[in-house]
Structure formats: structure tokens, C-alpha cells
Amino acid sequence: MITRILLASCLWTSSLAASIVSRDQLVLSTIETKHRPLVIWHGLGDTALSDGISEFIDDIKTLYPGIYVHSVQVPEGGTPDEEKKAGFYGNATEQGESGCEQLANIPELSNGFDAMGFSQGGLFLRYYAQYCNDPPIKNLITFGTPHYGIAALIPCPTPPSLTCLLAARAARAGIYSTWAQSHLVQAAYFRDPARFDEFLSTNTFLRNLNGEGRLVDGSGQVGQGGQGLSHLENFIPVMFDADRTVSPAQSAHFWTYDFDDKTLLVPIEKQKLYTQDWIGLKSLDEAGKLHLEHCPGEHMDLGTGDCAMNLVKKWVGDM
Ligand SMILES: *[C@@H]1O[C@H](CO)[C@@H](O)[C@H](O)[C@H]1NC(C)=O
């Protein structure tokens, strides 16, 4: 509510100012009030321009008239079926790279943009921020993103799609097999603390993204997490408080299950990832740029309490 009032008065002030200055300044102020572009990366089982995502984009365009919004499509130019399939099947590193290429080729984004990742899509945006980031992300918001992995597969929806059932069966057959690691997207962020050695030796995507590759051989040369995240203006990982889809739900805030006891959770501030600042989370936090936010609902319930739109008002669309 406060955000909305502040925003309204701010808009009012700038339009009033524009009306009483000279024509040159008016042109300048029109340029200055252009909203920063936004990139969205959808989640598992969704497509770039599904009904849900399109509605969300429409709401954002109503809030910020003229804002440029791009929703990442993998594979680019693919059919909705191919897109849904790519959410389950594929090499996560290659999908991350294809996002890097896609965003680098959009002129509207060339001065930087805010980015919003839904669930699994947040990991790909983190890949972008840490390994590519050209043009740069300013504010990064992730909703229900399993930043520190999942210790159990994401359950298939009811009724389940065949793609989801088949992917789940393949995953159960050996999540840490070489095949699964390079062909199943969920395997790329499957991190079961009870099988941490297997994770360290076979996983590359999440392990390297979180800087845990340095634990592999002690040389500190493997998997440093790229340039990390400390370059962001703000990082806003959002956790769904009633999330029963991601295990553990707190992975959205970089929590994990304890290595020895799955009934215990290790909070972000107790993770080496944070205390040793492997990917810049501690730096961001100390600079007041890490904002661990909450939404009240189940996984990807963006509407309850107007949660997502309130975060959009606060973190998206700056000049
Ligand atoms: C995925 O693709 C990358 C880039 O082509 C490759 O280096 C890697 O070995 C593949 N597999 C995994 C598990 O990342």
C-alpha cells in the first residue's frame, strides 16, 4: 500500500514538472521516465507466452505503460509443446547459454534490464547473471526458485502430463547418472544432502552455479560460480510460505536440509556459500541489496495478497 502511494505521488510530481518546463526539457523528461525493460523466464511445464504469463505481462504493462517486456523462449521459435518439453528435457547449461544468446540479441535490452524468474526459470536467470550478464541485469527477482537445489523431484501436476511422468521415471532410474545430468533439467539442480558426494562428482550445473565446484578437488579451480551476483543492484529471492512443491521450500532462500539429518534445515546465514561469500550473497547483504521476501501461498501462487504485483511495484520499472 505504501509503495503504491509513493509511486502515485512520484508519477504525479514528474508529470506536473513536465508540464511547466520548456519543450526541450520536456523531451528530456520523456526519455528519462521510460521504464527499465523487464525479462521473464518461466517455470517448469509453462511456456513463454502461456495464458498465465501473458496475463501477468498485461498487468505489468498496465502498471507501467510503454515498458518493454521479453519472455524468454526455449527453444527460440519452438512450438508450445517443444517449449514444455524443454522444461523437463535438455542440458541445463545449454539452455542457460541459449538464454544468454537470446537476450544479447535484443536491442531494447542493451542498457540493462530487470529480470523475474519463476521457479526453475530463476536458476537460468542466475546462470545469465553469473556467466553472461551482457547486457546486465539490474534487479533480479526470483519466485520459488530452488536456489540450493531440490532434495526430491518436483511432483507432476494433477492430472499429470505424459512428459512429466516419463521424466520422473527416468529421473528415478538414476538422477546422478551421466545421462540424467545432461538430459533432465531437474537432475541439473537435484541436490540431496544425503548423497552429497555423488552430487559433487556428477553434477556441474547447480554445483558450479553455487560455487561448490571448489570443494571437488580442493584446488579451488573448479566451479567458482562465474562472476557471482554482487554486481546486481538488488537481488530479491521470494519464498512461498506454503510451498509444498519444492523440497525444501526454503531452498528459495538458499536454505538446505542438514547433511546428516533431513529433519533439520540449514539457514542461508549458516551456509559456507554465504559466510565465505562464494557467489557474492554476503556482499550483497552487507550492502543492503539482498532482500529475502515471502509470498503467503503455495508454490507459484502469485496472486494471494497481491504478492507478485506488490513486488513488481517495488522492484521493477525504475527509470
Ligand atoms: C551440457 O552441455 C555443456 C555445453 O555443451 C557440456 O559442456 C556439458 O558436458 C553437458 N552436460 C552437462 C551435464 O552439463
From TrEMBL:
A single Gene Ontology MF term assigned here is:
palmitoyl-(protein) hydrolase activity
The record ties this protein, via InterPro entries, to: AB_hydrolase_fold (IPR029058), Palm_thioest (IPR002472)
Broad EC category:
hydrolase
Instruction: Return the Gene3D superfamilies for the record.
Output: alpha/beta hydrolase (3.40.50.1820)
Instruction: Report any Pfam family annotated for this entry.
Output: Palm_thioest
The family annotation for this protein states: Belongs to the palmitoyl-protein thioesterase family.
Query: What's this protein's name?
Result: Palmitoyl-protein thioesterase 1
| Record's signal peptide | 1-17
The UniProt keyword set, sorted, is: Disulfide bond, Glycoprotein, Hydrolase, Signal
Q: What EC number(s) are associated with this protein in UniProt?
A: 3.1.2.22
- Taxonomy of the source species: Eukaryota, Fungi, Dikarya, Basidiomycota, Agaricomycotina
